[in-house]
Protein backbone atom coordinates (compact mmCIF):
# COMPACT_ATOMS: atom_id res chain seq x y z
CA UNK A 1 0.00 0.00 0.00
CA UNK A 2 0.35 1.12 -0.24
CA UNK A 3 4.15 2.69 -2.21
CA UNK A 4 6.85 9.38 -2.36
CA UNK A 5 4.72 10.97 -4.79
CA UNK A 6 5.40 9.57 -7.86
CA UNK A 7 7.29 9.86 -10.81
CA UNK A 8 7.06 13.10 -12.58
CA UNK A 9 5.43 15.95 -14.20
CA UNK A 10 4.74 13.92 -17.31
CA UNK A 11 3.50 15.25 -20.61
CA UNK A 12 0.81 17.92 -20.87
CA UNK A 13 -2.29 17.25 -22.96
CA UNK A 14 -3.18 20.89 -23.58
CA UNK A 15 -6.14 22.87 -22.23
CA UNK A 16 -9.23 20.94 -21.15
CA UNK A 17 -11.80 22.76 -23.26
CA UNK A 18 -14.56 20.24 -22.49
CA UNK A 19 -14.36 20.97 -18.76
CA UNK A 20 -14.25 24.71 -19.49
CA UNK A 21 -17.55 24.40 -21.35
CA UNK A 22 -19.11 22.67 -18.35
CA UNK A 23 -18.26 25.70 -16.20
CA UNK A 24 -20.41 27.87 -18.45
CA UNK A 25 -20.83 31.46 -17.30
CA UNK A 26 -19.71 30.84 -13.72
CA UNK A 27 -16.40 32.26 -12.59
CA UNK A 28 -13.74 29.76 -11.46
CA UNK A 29 -14.46 30.70 -7.85
CA UNK A 30 -18.22 30.29 -8.26
CA UNK A 31 -17.77 26.96 -9.99
CA UNK A 32 -15.43 25.78 -7.21
CA UNK A 33 -18.11 26.67 -4.65
CA UNK A 34 -20.60 24.59 -6.66
CA UNK A 35 -18.17 21.67 -6.60
CA UNK A 36 -17.85 21.91 -2.81
CA UNK A 37 -21.65 22.02 -2.41
CA UNK A 38 -22.06 18.97 -4.62
CA UNK A 39 -19.40 17.16 -2.60
CA UNK A 40 -21.32 17.77 0.62
CA UNK A 41 -24.48 16.39 -1.02
CA UNK A 42 -22.83 12.98 -1.42
CA UNK A 43 -20.76 13.02 1.77
CA UNK A 44 -17.43 13.84 0.11
CA UNK A 45 -14.90 16.42 1.21
CA UNK A 46 -12.83 18.25 -1.41
CA UNK A 47 -10.77 21.42 -1.04
CA UNK A 48 -11.80 22.84 -4.40
CA UNK A 49 -10.96 26.47 -5.15
CA UNK A 50 -10.51 28.69 -8.21
CA UNK A 51 -6.87 27.60 -8.52
CA UNK A 52 -7.87 23.96 -8.78
CA UNK A 53 -10.43 24.74 -11.49
CA UNK A 54 -7.77 26.71 -13.36
CA UNK A 55 -5.37 23.77 -13.20
CA UNK A 56 -8.01 21.40 -14.56
CA UNK A 57 -8.87 23.74 -17.42
CA UNK A 58 -5.19 24.25 -18.22
CA UNK A 59 -4.76 20.49 -18.57
CA UNK A 60 -2.40 20.20 -15.60
CA UNK A 61 -4.73 17.70 -13.91
CA UNK A 62 -5.19 14.95 -16.45
CA UNK A 63 -7.45 12.82 -14.26
CA UNK A 64 -9.05 13.75 -10.93
CA UNK A 65 -8.60 11.71 -7.81
CA UNK A 66 -11.41 9.38 -6.77
CA UNK A 67 -13.12 11.91 -4.49
CA UNK A 68 -13.28 14.55 -7.23
CA UNK A 69 -14.36 11.88 -9.73
CA UNK A 70 -17.40 10.99 -7.63
CA UNK A 71 -18.30 14.67 -7.24
CA UNK A 72 -17.98 15.46 -10.95
CA UNK A 73 -20.03 12.40 -11.92
CA UNK A 74 -22.68 13.53 -9.43
CA UNK A 75 -22.69 17.06 -10.87
CA UNK A 76 -22.95 15.94 -14.49
CA UNK A 77 -25.09 12.78 -14.70
CA UNK A 78 -24.57 10.82 -17.88
CA UNK A 79 -21.08 12.20 -18.44
CA UNK A 80 -17.96 10.05 -18.17
CA UNK A 81 -14.58 11.43 -17.14
CA UNK A 82 -13.50 11.34 -20.78
CA UNK A 83 -16.64 13.32 -21.74
CA UNK A 84 -15.38 15.96 -19.30
CA UNK A 85 -12.04 16.09 -21.08
CA UNK A 86 -10.02 13.95 -18.66
CA UNK A 87 -7.61 11.17 -19.65
CA UNK A 88 -8.39 7.52 -18.83
CA UNK A 89 -7.23 6.74 -15.31
CA UNK A 90 -4.95 3.94 -16.55
CA UNK A 91 -2.93 6.48 -18.53
CA UNK A 92 -2.12 8.65 -15.53
CA UNK A 93 -2.16 6.29 -12.52
CA UNK A 94 0.66 7.34 -10.26
CA UNK A 95 1.69 10.50 -12.12
CA UNK A 96 2.67 13.33 -9.82
CA UNK A 97 3.12 16.92 -10.86
CA UNK A 98 6.18 17.91 -8.88
CA UNK A 99 7.92 21.24 -8.84
CA UNK A 100 11.64 21.46 -9.33
CA UNK A 101 11.94 22.06 -5.60
CA UNK A 102 10.45 18.64 -4.95
CA UNK A 103 7.07 19.72 -3.65
CA UNK A 104 4.16 17.41 -4.20
CA UNK A 105 1.40 18.38 -6.57
CA UNK A 106 -1.11 17.09 -9.07
CA UNK A 107 -4.33 15.33 -8.47
CA UNK A 108 -4.47 11.79 -9.81
CA UNK A 109 -4.98 8.32 -8.50
CA UNK A 110 -2.25 6.17 -6.84
CA UNK A 111 -1.82 2.44 -6.40
CA UNK A 112 1.04 0.07 -6.27
CA UNK A 113 3.38 -1.90 -9.04
CA UNK A 114 4.15 -3.49 -12.76
CA UNK A 115 6.65 -3.64 -15.59
CA UNK A 116 9.13 -1.30 -17.16
CA UNK A 117 9.02 -3.63 -20.13
CA UNK A 118 5.35 -2.95 -20.46
CA UNK A 119 5.89 0.77 -20.28
CA UNK A 120 8.49 0.98 -23.00
CA UNK A 121 6.29 -1.13 -25.18
CA UNK A 122 3.52 1.43 -24.66
CA UNK A 123 5.93 4.28 -25.38
CA UNK A 124 6.73 2.70 -28.75
CA UNK A 125 3.10 2.82 -29.81
CA UNK A 126 1.85 -0.62 -28.81
CA UNK A 127 -1.30 -1.39 -26.84
CA UNK A 128 -0.93 -2.67 -23.28
CA UNK A 129 -3.62 -4.82 -21.66
CA UNK A 130 -4.12 -5.33 -17.95
CA UNK A 131 -3.81 -9.11 -17.92
CA UNK A 132 -1.59 -10.91 -15.42
CA UNK A 133 -1.27 -13.90 -17.74
CA UNK A 134 0.59 -11.73 -20.25
CA UNK A 135 3.50 -10.81 -18.01
CA UNK A 136 5.97 -13.23 -19.58
CA UNK A 137 5.00 -12.09 -23.06
CA UNK A 138 5.37 -8.45 -22.05
CA UNK A 139 8.84 -9.17 -20.69
CA UNK A 140 10.00 -10.36 -24.09
CA UNK A 141 8.45 -7.35 -25.81
CA UNK A 142 10.21 -5.00 -23.41
CA UNK A 143 13.55 -6.65 -23.99
CA UNK A 144 13.24 -6.02 -27.72
CA UNK A 145 12.18 -2.43 -27.10
CA UNK A 146 15.22 -1.83 -24.92
CA UNK A 147 17.48 -3.10 -27.68
CA UNK A 148 16.28 -0.18 -29.82
CA UNK A 149 16.36 2.40 -27.07
CA UNK A 150 19.95 3.61 -27.05
CA UNK A 151 21.60 3.36 -23.67
CA UNK A 152 18.63 1.37 -22.42
CA UNK A 153 20.28 -1.64 -24.07
CA UNK A 154 22.19 -1.89 -20.81
CA UNK A 155 19.07 -3.32 -19.23
CA UNK A 156 18.33 -6.11 -21.70
CA UNK A 157 20.10 -8.71 -19.60
CA UNK A 158 17.61 -8.10 -16.80
CA UNK A 159 14.67 -9.61 -18.61
CA UNK A 160 15.81 -13.13 -19.44
CA UNK A 161 14.19 -15.15 -22.21
CA UNK A 162 15.61 -16.81 -25.31
CA UNK A 163 17.70 -13.85 -26.41
CA UNK A 164 19.15 -13.03 -23.00
CA UNK A 165 22.56 -14.48 -23.71
CA UNK A 166 22.96 -12.51 -26.92
CA UNK A 167 21.68 -9.37 -25.24
CA UNK A 168 24.18 -9.73 -22.43
CA UNK A 169 27.09 -10.10 -24.82
CA UNK A 170 26.00 -7.14 -26.88
CA UNK A 171 25.18 -4.77 -24.05
CA UNK A 172 28.65 -3.24 -23.45
CA UNK A 173 29.06 -2.36 -27.13
CA UNK A 174 25.58 -0.92 -27.37
CA UNK A 175 26.05 1.11 -24.22
CA UNK A 176 29.37 2.57 -25.27
CA UNK A 177 27.94 3.99 -28.49
CA UNK A 178 24.49 4.98 -27.26
CA UNK A 179 23.13 8.40 -26.58
CA UNK A 180 22.43 9.32 -22.98
CA UNK A 181 19.07 8.67 -21.38
CA UNK A 182 16.37 11.25 -22.10
CA UNK A 183 12.72 12.09 -21.54
CA UNK A 184 11.34 9.00 -23.28
CA UNK A 185 13.22 6.65 -20.94
CA UNK A 186 12.19 8.67 -17.87
CA UNK A 187 8.58 8.56 -18.99
CA UNK A 188 8.82 4.79 -19.50
CA UNK A 189 9.95 4.33 -15.89
CA UNK A 190 7.11 6.54 -14.67
CA UNK A 191 4.52 4.59 -16.64
CA UNK A 192 5.89 1.35 -15.25
CA UNK A 193 5.10 2.59 -11.75
CA UNK A 194 1.52 3.44 -12.77
CA UNK A 195 0.84 0.08 -14.35
CA UNK A 196 2.33 -1.86 -11.47
CA UNK A 197 0.12 0.04 -9.05
CA UNK A 198 -2.97 -0.58 -11.15
CA UNK A 199 -2.35 -4.32 -11.26
CA UNK A 200 -1.65 -4.47 -7.53
CA UNK A 201 -4.90 -2.67 -6.73
CA UNK A 202 -6.86 -5.18 -8.76
CA UNK A 203 -4.95 -8.43 -8.44
CA UNK A 204 -2.60 -8.36 -5.44
CA UNK A 205 1.14 -8.90 -5.33
CA UNK A 206 1.93 -12.59 -5.62
CA UNK A 207 1.84 -12.89 -9.40
CA UNK A 208 3.64 -9.62 -10.10
CA UNK A 209 6.72 -9.59 -7.92
CA UNK A 210 9.34 -11.32 -10.07
CA UNK A 211 8.67 -9.41 -13.28
CA UNK A 212 8.41 -6.10 -11.46
CA UNK A 213 11.85 -6.83 -10.00
CA UNK A 214 13.21 -7.22 -13.53
CA UNK A 215 11.80 -3.80 -14.31
CA UNK A 216 13.45 -2.29 -11.25
CA UNK A 217 16.87 -3.55 -12.26
CA UNK A 218 16.37 -2.03 -15.69
CA UNK A 219 15.35 1.32 -14.18
CA UNK A 220 18.50 1.53 -12.08
CA UNK A 221 20.63 0.65 -15.09
CA UNK A 222 19.04 3.59 -16.89
CA UNK A 223 19.86 5.75 -13.89
CA UNK A 224 23.48 4.58 -13.95
CA UNK A 225 23.72 5.33 -17.68
CA UNK A 226 23.46 9.01 -16.85
CA UNK A 227 21.93 12.04 -18.54
CA UNK A 228 23.12 15.53 -19.43
CA UNK A 229 19.98 17.20 -18.10
CA UNK A 230 19.18 17.76 -14.43
CA UNK A 231 15.42 17.62 -15.06
CA UNK A 232 15.71 14.16 -16.60
CA UNK A 233 17.99 13.01 -13.79
CA UNK A 234 15.46 14.17 -11.20
CA UNK A 235 12.69 12.30 -12.99
CA UNK A 236 14.77 9.13 -13.21
CA UNK A 237 15.71 9.26 -9.52
CA UNK A 238 12.08 9.84 -8.50
CA UNK A 239 10.81 7.16 -10.88
CA UNK A 240 13.40 4.58 -9.88
CA UNK A 241 12.76 5.29 -6.20
CA UNK A 242 9.01 4.93 -6.65
CA UNK A 243 9.55 1.72 -8.57
CA UNK A 244 11.74 0.39 -5.75
CA UNK A 245 8.94 1.14 -3.27
CA UNK A 246 6.37 -0.50 -5.51
CA UNK A 247 8.47 -3.63 -5.93
CA UNK A 248 9.16 -3.59 -2.20
CA UNK A 249 5.44 -3.48 -1.56
CA UNK A 250 4.89 -6.47 -3.84
CA UNK A 251 7.54 -8.35 -1.86
CA UNK A 252 5.92 -7.24 1.41
CA UNK A 253 2.40 -8.25 0.42
CA UNK A 254 3.60 -11.63 -0.87
CA UNK A 255 5.43 -12.43 2.38
CA UNK A 256 9.01 -11.77 1.21
CA UNK A 257 9.91 -9.47 4.09
CA UNK A 258 13.68 -9.58 3.58
CA UNK A 259 13.35 -8.56 -0.06
CA UNK A 260 10.90 -5.81 0.85
CA UNK A 261 13.27 -4.40 3.46
CA UNK A 262 16.06 -4.27 0.86
CA UNK A 263 13.92 -2.52 -1.74
CA UNK A 264 12.68 0.09 0.73
CA UNK A 265 16.25 0.78 1.81
CA UNK A 266 17.18 1.21 -1.86
CA UNK A 267 14.38 3.74 -2.30
CA UNK A 268 15.47 5.62 0.82
CA UNK A 269 19.05 5.79 -0.42
CA UNK A 270 17.83 7.08 -3.77
CA UNK A 271 15.77 9.75 -2.02
CA UNK A 272 18.76 10.87 0.06
CA UNK A 273 21.04 11.06 -3.02
CA UNK A 274 18.46 13.06 -4.95
CA UNK A 275 17.50 15.30 -2.02
CA UNK A 276 13.84 14.31 -2.48
CA UNK A 277 11.91 14.61 0.83
CA UNK A 278 8.67 13.35 -0.74
CA UNK A 279 10.30 10.11 -1.86
CA UNK A 280 12.01 9.84 1.54
CA UNK A 281 8.68 10.19 3.36
CA UNK A 282 7.16 7.52 1.15
CA UNK A 283 10.05 5.12 1.78
CA UNK A 284 9.82 5.61 5.55
CA UNK A 285 6.04 5.12 5.41
CA UNK A 286 6.40 1.72 3.80
CA UNK A 287 9.35 0.79 6.01
CA UNK A 288 7.22 1.45 9.08
CA UNK A 289 4.40 -0.67 7.68
CA UNK A 290 6.79 -3.54 6.97
CA UNK A 291 8.38 -3.33 10.41
CA UNK A 292 4.97 -3.63 12.05
CA UNK A 293 4.07 -6.69 9.99
CA UNK A 294 7.49 -8.24 10.63
CA UNK A 295 6.99 -7.91 14.41
CA UNK A 296 9.53 -5.10 14.84
CA UNK A 297 7.21 -2.53 16.40
CA UNK A 298 9.88 -0.23 17.81
CA UNK A 299 11.43 0.08 14.37
CA UNK A 300 7.94 0.85 13.03
CA UNK A 301 7.62 3.76 15.46
CA UNK A 302 11.06 5.14 14.58
CA UNK A 303 10.51 4.86 10.82
CA UNK A 304 7.08 6.49 11.01
CA UNK A 305 8.46 9.38 13.07
CA UNK A 306 11.33 9.83 10.60
CA UNK A 307 8.77 9.92 7.78
CA UNK A 308 6.85 12.66 9.58
CA UNK A 309 10.04 14.71 9.80
CA UNK A 310 10.65 14.29 6.07
CA UNK A 311 7.05 15.20 5.23
CA UNK A 312 6.53 18.15 7.57
CA UNK A 313 7.24 20.82 4.92
CA UNK A 314 5.45 19.11 2.02
CA UNK A 315 2.06 20.62 2.81
CA UNK A 316 0.05 17.39 2.90
CA UNK A 317 -1.94 16.80 6.09
CA UNK A 318 -3.18 13.50 4.65
CA UNK A 319 0.39 12.24 4.22
CA UNK A 320 1.18 13.19 7.81
CA UNK A 321 -2.03 11.45 8.92
CA UNK A 322 -0.98 8.20 7.25
CA UNK A 323 2.50 8.39 8.74
CA UNK A 324 0.98 9.01 12.18
CA UNK A 325 -1.23 5.94 11.73
CA UNK A 326 1.91 3.95 10.95
CA UNK A 327 3.33 5.23 14.25
CA UNK A 328 0.14 4.20 16.04
CA UNK A 329 0.52 0.70 14.63
CA UNK A 330 4.00 0.49 16.08
CA UNK A 331 2.84 1.60 19.51
CA UNK A 332 0.03 -0.96 19.38
CA UNK A 333 2.58 -3.66 18.60
CA UNK A 334 4.55 -2.58 21.66
CA UNK A 335 1.38 -2.84 23.77
CA UNK A 336 1.51 0.89 24.63
CA UNK A 337 -2.19 1.75 24.55
CA UNK A 338 -1.71 5.34 25.73
CA UNK A 339 0.83 6.21 23.03
CA UNK A 340 -1.29 4.42 20.43
CA UNK A 341 -4.43 6.36 21.35
CA UNK A 342 -2.50 9.64 21.27
CA UNK A 343 -1.17 8.88 17.79
CA UNK A 344 -4.63 7.84 16.58
CA UNK A 345 -6.03 11.13 17.83
CA UNK A 346 -3.35 13.10 15.94
CA UNK A 347 -4.00 11.04 12.82
CA UNK A 348 -7.72 11.79 12.92
CA UNK A 349 -7.07 15.51 13.43
CA UNK A 350 -4.70 15.62 10.47
CA UNK A 351 -7.11 13.59 8.31
CA UNK A 352 -9.87 16.02 9.21
CA UNK A 353 -7.89 18.85 7.61
CA UNK A 354 -9.05 17.37 4.32
CA UNK A 355 -7.33 16.68 1.00
CA UNK A 356 -5.09 19.18 -0.74
CA UNK A 357 -3.26 19.59 -4.02
CA UNK A 358 -0.08 18.63 -2.18
CA UNK A 359 -1.31 15.08 -1.49
CA UNK A 360 0.85 12.57 -3.42
CA UNK A 361 -0.93 10.50 -6.06
CA UNK A 362 0.24 7.21 -4.59
CA UNK A 363 -1.98 8.01 -1.61
CA UNK A 364 -5.25 7.87 -3.54
CA UNK A 365 -6.01 4.67 -1.62
CA UNK A 366 -5.94 6.64 1.64
CA UNK A 367 -9.50 7.67 2.34
CA UNK A 368 -11.85 7.16 5.23
CA UNK A 369 -11.95 3.41 4.62
CA UNK A 370 -8.18 3.08 4.99
CA UNK A 371 -8.24 5.26 8.11
CA UNK A 372 -10.83 2.94 9.67
CA UNK A 373 -8.97 -0.19 8.56
CA UNK A 374 -5.64 0.90 10.02
CA UNK A 375 -7.31 1.86 13.27
CA UNK A 376 -8.96 -1.57 13.37
CA UNK A 377 -5.54 -3.19 13.10
CA UNK A 378 -4.30 -1.10 16.03
CA UNK A 379 -7.15 -2.23 18.29
CA UNK A 380 -6.65 -5.81 17.15
CA UNK A 381 -2.97 -5.67 18.10
CA UNK A 382 -4.01 -4.35 21.52
CA UNK A 383 -6.50 -7.21 21.95
CA UNK A 384 -9.58 -4.96 21.94
CA UNK A 385 -11.53 -7.14 19.53
CA UNK A 386 -14.83 -5.30 19.88
CA UNK A 387 -13.41 -1.95 18.81
CA UNK A 388 -11.32 -3.66 16.15
CA UNK A 389 -14.40 -5.31 14.61
CA UNK A 390 -16.33 -2.03 14.74
CA UNK A 391 -13.68 -0.17 12.74
CA UNK A 392 -13.08 -3.09 10.36
CA UNK A 393 -16.79 -3.19 9.56
CA UNK A 394 -16.72 0.52 8.75
CA UNK A 395 -13.66 0.05 6.57
CA UNK A 396 -15.43 -2.61 4.49
CA UNK A 397 -18.56 -0.47 4.11
CA UNK A 398 -16.62 2.64 3.06
CA UNK A 399 -14.10 1.03 0.70
CA UNK A 400 -14.11 2.16 -2.93
CA UNK A 401 -14.91 -0.91 -5.11
CA UNK A 402 -11.88 -0.08 -7.29
CA UNK A 403 -9.56 -1.26 -4.53
CA UNK A 404 -10.42 -4.96 -4.62
CA UNK A 405 -7.36 -6.02 -2.62
CA UNK A 406 -8.12 -3.58 0.19
CA UNK A 407 -11.75 -4.72 0.35
CA UNK A 408 -10.54 -8.29 0.73
CA UNK A 409 -8.00 -7.17 3.34
CA UNK A 410 -10.50 -5.36 5.57
CA UNK A 411 -13.03 -8.18 5.24
CA UNK A 412 -10.37 -10.67 6.35
CA UNK A 413 -9.52 -8.37 9.27
CA UNK A 414 -13.19 -8.31 10.24
CA UNK A 415 -13.39 -12.11 10.10
CA UNK A 416 -10.44 -12.46 12.46
CA UNK A 417 -11.76 -9.88 14.91
CA UNK A 418 -15.21 -11.48 15.03
CA UNK A 419 -13.69 -14.93 15.47
CA UNK A 420 -11.64 -13.64 18.41
CA UNK A 421 -14.93 -12.44 19.97
CA UNK A 422 -16.32 -15.97 19.57
CA UNK A 423 -18.97 -14.86 17.08
CA UNK A 424 -18.56 -17.80 14.68
CA UNK A 425 -21.48 -17.25 12.29
CA UNK A 426 -20.59 -13.62 11.60
CA UNK A 427 -16.88 -14.43 11.38
CA UNK A 428 -17.47 -17.29 8.94
CA UNK A 429 -19.68 -15.07 6.79
CA UNK A 430 -16.98 -12.38 6.62
CA UNK A 431 -14.34 -15.01 5.92
CA UNK A 432 -16.38 -16.46 3.06
CA UNK A 433 -16.83 -13.01 1.54
CA UNK A 434 -13.08 -12.41 1.76
CA UNK A 435 -12.44 -15.75 0.05
CA UNK A 436 -14.78 -14.76 -2.77
CA UNK A 437 -12.83 -11.55 -3.27
CA UNK A 438 -9.58 -13.49 -3.33
CA UNK A 439 -10.56 -14.94 -6.69
CA UNK A 440 -8.91 -12.05 -8.58
CA UNK A 441 -6.57 -11.14 -5.70
CA UNK A 442 -3.26 -12.86 -4.96
CA UNK A 443 -2.01 -11.74 -1.57
CA UNK A 444 -0.05 -13.89 0.87
CA UNK A 445 -0.76 -11.36 3.61
CA UNK A 446 -4.53 -11.63 3.22
CA UNK A 447 -4.38 -15.42 3.09
CA UNK A 448 -2.40 -15.37 6.35
CA UNK A 449 -5.10 -13.24 7.97
CA UNK A 450 -7.74 -15.75 6.88
CA UNK A 451 -5.62 -18.57 8.32
CA UNK A 452 -5.68 -16.76 11.66
CA UNK A 453 -9.47 -16.45 11.48
CA UNK A 454 -9.72 -20.15 10.57
CA UNK A 455 -7.65 -21.24 13.58
CA UNK A 456 -9.95 -19.28 15.86
CA UNK A 457 -13.02 -20.81 14.23
CA UNK A 458 -11.98 -24.47 14.21
CA UNK A 459 -13.49 -25.13 17.67
CA UNK A 460 -16.85 -24.25 16.03
CA UNK A 461 -16.29 -26.46 12.97
CA UNK A 462 -19.58 -28.32 13.48
CA UNK A 463 -21.59 -25.19 12.78
CA UNK A 464 -22.75 -25.10 9.18
CA UNK A 465 -21.46 -21.62 8.27
CA UNK A 466 -18.07 -22.31 9.83
CA UNK A 467 -17.79 -25.68 8.10
CA UNK A 468 -18.55 -24.01 4.75
CA UNK A 469 -15.87 -21.37 5.31
CA UNK A 470 -13.25 -23.88 6.41
CA UNK A 471 -14.15 -26.17 3.52
CA UNK A 472 -13.44 -23.44 0.98
CA UNK A 473 -10.09 -22.44 2.42
CA UNK A 474 -7.02 -23.41 0.35
CA UNK A 475 -5.28 -26.50 1.67
CA UNK A 476 -2.37 -24.39 2.92
CA UNK A 477 -4.69 -22.75 5.41
From TrEMBL:
Low complexity: bias regions: 1-15
InterPro entries tied to this protein: TPR-like_helical_dom_sf
Ranges for region Disordered: 1-22
Protein name: Tetratricopeptide repeat protein
Source organism per UniProt: Streptomyces daliensis
Upper classification of the organism: Bacteria, Bacillati, Actinomycetota, Actinomycetes, Kitasatosporales
Amino acid sequence: MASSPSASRGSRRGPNTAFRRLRGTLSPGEFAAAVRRSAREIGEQVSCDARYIGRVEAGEIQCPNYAYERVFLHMFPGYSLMDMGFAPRESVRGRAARTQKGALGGDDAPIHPVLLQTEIRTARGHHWRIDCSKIDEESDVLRRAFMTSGSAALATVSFGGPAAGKASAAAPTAASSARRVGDSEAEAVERAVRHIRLLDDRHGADGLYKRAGDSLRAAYELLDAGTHRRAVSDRLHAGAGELAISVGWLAHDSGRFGDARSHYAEALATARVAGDPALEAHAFCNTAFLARDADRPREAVRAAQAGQQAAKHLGSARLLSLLTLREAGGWAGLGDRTACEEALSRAHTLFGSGPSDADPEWMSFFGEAELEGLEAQCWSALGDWGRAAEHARRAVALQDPHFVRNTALFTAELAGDLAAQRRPDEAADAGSRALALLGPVQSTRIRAMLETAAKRLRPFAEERSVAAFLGHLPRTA
